[in-house]
Predict the structure of Peroxisomal bifunctional enzyme.
Amino acid sequence: SLTVLQALEDGLKKADTDPSVKAVMICGENGKFSAGADIKGFSSPKSCGTVLGPIVSLIERSEKPVVAAIEGIALGGGLEITLGCHYRIAHVKAQLGLPEVTLGLLPGAEGTQRLPRLIGVPAALDIITTGRHISATEALKLGLVDEIVEENTVEAAIRLANRV
């Protein structure tokens, strides 16, 4: 939602300017990272305000380490947010993907550029063009996540942030 995007942008900007903040951890709520945009919002007129692409770029440009703590699902725009992060930790049961193509849409927040840079063109093309969800284990093998954990993902992401 626009509210979530605005809060994410505001939080990132505040963290970047606060010298007491050494790293940033982004997580979801209720055991899910993010299922991406609500498709119903695509039919409504564009409103002025925040869009996802520039926020992902803001994450990527942060001089402080940004760690994604992926639980449950990171799909569509949710996965694109993680692609802007410097590090990604996923729970062993997490599912990741860019399913927009199954609706006739391409990922719209530069996921089509960031994913191939991270995991290579052949693997990225498979994920982008099929819309299939991949497991955390496969994501680790591809280099999409840095670590998978069976424990609390948020705590593991905080430990990683403290290490880097």
